[in-house]
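Changelog note: in this version the structure field was regenerated for every chain. One regenerated record is shown below for reference.
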Amino acid sequence: MPTGSFHPLLRQLYERRLHGVVTSGARLPRHVGLVMDGNRRWARQMGMGNPSVGHRYGAEHVDEVLGWCRELGIDHVTVYVASLDNLRKRDAAEVAYLLGVIEDVVAERLAAPGATWQVHLAGRLDALPDSTAHALKLAEEQTRHCDSGAHVTIAVGYDGRVEIVDALRALLDAEAGTGASLADVAARISDEAIAAHLYTAPRPPPDLIIRTSGERRLSGFLLWQSANAELFFCDTYWPAFRRVDFLRALRDYARRDRRFGR
């Protein structure tokens, strides 16, 4: 049911109803992945002269969405901030602006005094400028002892295929360190062994992945981990992603029959 043209009171009542549905014993995801797409298109729609400014609004919105997750007891969130392709193929000025936003907004806000989310990183940090990598690593270190049980993973400089290659390489390096023969290593390789070396290990795989902006693809996000994830695609651009949109995604998830191949 679209709500964009609703009277504010009707929209509020609809949102309250959705909230009641998802909090009344409905099955909720433990881990939500967020592909926060459409920042630049939203900025253009809003008439902003520099579309890159949308990245700042999008990054600031992450804080609000994490609050919705905490309210509902969702304690694992992975946010797709920037892919390796984003960093390599987009205009240099836009990339520089985006990296500045990551330093100023994402890293600083998540690591602010009283932070309630333990920060984890996923991706090739060596693809980032030293200042950005340092800011993210500092956020990770400063929240290492956060005992709230809430975990947020920032996927930046990330590519799911590269992650699998890196995991396999790490597994082979570990096996080589034991003096095992190539035949022994080949015999012991398993999906569990590879999964243990993913960027996101040992955190659980996502139950639900939400992508905004109307695009209907994962774009390399958590390729290994998303094998059994439910996917929800929302037409709204990320900075305009509302609580009612989030509740709809959760309601849709609760209605699905998750059989895991059974």
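Spot check on this record: The two ends are 32 Å apart (CA to CA). The longest helix spans residues 53-72.
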